[in-house]
Amino acid sequence: MQYLFTFGFTLVLSTCVFGQYSIDGIWEAIDDKDGKPSSHIQIQEVNGEISAKIIKIFDVEETVVCELCKGDKKDKPVLGMEIIYDMSKNGNVWQGGRILDPEVGKDYKCKITMPDKNTLNVRGYIGIPALGRTQTWHRVR
Fold first, then answer.
1. How distant, in Å, are the alpha carbons of 8, 19, 49, 116 from that of 14?
2. What is the DSSP letter of 105?
3. Which residue ranges form the domains of the chain, and what is each CATH number?
4. Separation of alpha carbons 47 and 94, rounded Å
């Protein structure tokens, strides 16, 4: 019985320790309208915050610029553009930052969850999370 308890405790402890996956990597964004890959996004965590930039674009010219963006991103190349910024981890959720949709030139509040090591649920919203949409991104590497 003692061995069973020790095994169970070790299993629970390893799940807690190893259940936290690294968000660092390259992710494929899937367009929620047509279900096709739209881009590859590189996410990096530095000092407890994440940022993400577009490193590959599908089905558009790589020289496309963000005509509808405002401020310092106006008319800048989408390729290489930072689209997620100021996100920090709160429990199992990344939140508190913003995500830019270069297609419409608007940025939104953002919330990211990671149900497993190869999947991200990225939600952009206005006001509260219920007023938004979620894309599923898959790890490329």
1. 10, 8, 25, 15
2. T
3. 21-139 (2.40.128.520)
4. 14
pLDDT in tens, 53-92: 999 999 888 899 999 999 999 999 999 999 999 999 999 9
Give the predicted TM-score (pTM) of the model.
0.82
Beta strand 25-30 with 106-116 is unpaired
> What is the DSSP code string of 23-85?
--EEEEEE-TTT-SEEEEEEEEEETTEEEEEEEEESSS-TT-B-TT--GGGTT-BSTT-EEEE
Cα separation, 141 vs 49, whole angstroms = 20
Q: Which residues pair with 90 in a beta bridge?
A: 93
